[in-house]
Design brief:
- The protein is of the alpha/beta class.
- The protein folds into three domains: 251 residues, Ribonuclease Z/Hydroxyacylglutathione hydrolase-like (Metallo-beta-lactamase, Chain A, 4-Layer Sandwich), CATH 3.60.15; 89 residues, Rhodanese-like domain (Oxidized Rhodanese, domain 1, 3-Layer(aba) Sandwich), CATH 3.40.250; 93 residues, Rhodanese-like domain (Oxidized Rhodanese, domain 1).
- Helices cover 28% and strands 22% of the residues.
- It contains 15 helices and 24 strands.
- The strands form five sheets. Strands 1-2-3-4-5-6 form a six-stranded mixed sheet, covered by helices on one side. A six-stranded mixed sheet has the order 7-8-9-10-13-14.
- Strand 21, helix 13 and strand 22 form a beta-alpha-beta unit.
- Helix 4 crosses helix 6.
Amino acid sequence: MLLKYFYDPKLAQASYMVDCQAAGVAIVIDPARDIRPYLATAEAEGLRITHVTETHIHADYVSGTRELAAATGATMYLSDEGGHDWRYAYPDRDIHLLKDGDTFMVGNIRFEALHTPGHTPEHMCYQITDTAAADRPIGIFTGDFIFVGTVGRPDLLEEAAGIANTKEPGARQQFANIQRFQQLPDYLQIWPGHGAGSACGKGLGSIPSTTLGYEKLFNPAFQFDDEDRFVEWLLRDQPEAPRYFARMKYVNRVGPALLRDLPQPQQLPAEQLAAIAASDAQLIDARMASEFIAGHIAGSLHAPPDSDRFSTYVGWYIDYERPTYLIAHEQDVERLITELRAIGVDNLRGYFTPDAIQGETVTTAELTPQEALTALEQGALLVDVRDTAERVEQHIGGSRHIPMGFLPRHLDELPRDRLIILHCAGGVRSLVAASVLQQHGFTNVASVAGGLDRWLEEQLPSAIPMHH
């Protein structure tokens, strides 16, 4: 048996390939939409990918299960738990549906499906046994149930997909799952679906794997005897869920489009940019921050190409129904298209290189912390666009808090006759947020260079005199 680990830092997403070398076959667990790494690995190892599975209907990225099955002829193994509303509705025939306790073989390796609802109703873990070497299991693919140092959040159906009254029952199911796993042997290895930075839980660890025994000792979720206290803890301080999660739930349930069926976005001539900018299309400006600040097309969304959160920033604001165009340097285009496809931006009509930006542009003010303080003393409004958990830890007194992704909901509460100064931790998110306000017609907007980190470094006051 051979285990291969694949990790996408942009989505903090892990997938795995398990090979039975004796039989020359392999299975991929929770594949990403870009299946090239799995195909390359299988070819290098001389293996056929015969099985593909996933732990649940993902909310944060487009599943590659259909894509991989179409490319390799592998059989898909999918959960049949969770009731009618969470049953897969793929159009494909070659699907094997699984109930709790069902098993299947990949060569000599036995997979047992363990239904672990809570994060999602249909969620499965897969316990594996290398039958050629042992009669006991070696480990469990836990998907979004057990992470290193925490467990998966149960509130995404309610917070992201708008399905009422699901988060508390989900939390209680997570408690029951933990009681079930407390009975399993400590030596079992745990291979989770995400690492640090994922919005599928709070406080995820950065190391790629763990053991059940270690998590029993040190994972806060395993320390509760009282179910109500566990529920209260699990639902508290979860990170804000990006808006695109609702779309992913739908796409991954019905089955994503195959990439071969999508048109490949082409570079468009510069003279088309003005007409596209004036239309209902969405322009994603993925040039570097300094370039965006110096001048950009009115109405474009800034998404920094060098950020690990590029797709998350786009996902907060994208309208999947509207045509989308990219502005990016040629060397970034292929990678950024892959990242946009990973969150289902399939309505991508083409791209422009930066030299297409000609004529009238809009600038964005970037202020040093000292300049921002001076403006605030003269009546500007300071808006903190960081996540709630960051805000609770430390913030500038007198600032208004609107997490970056929720800005579009609060436009009516913001003044158009005062300078609005946005800040985050390091100056990246506030610039994205500034572009969102500019999209909505705010002209008096600035971002704090270096964010709160630099503000504190320069020992500026922890509260500001506010003018109302």
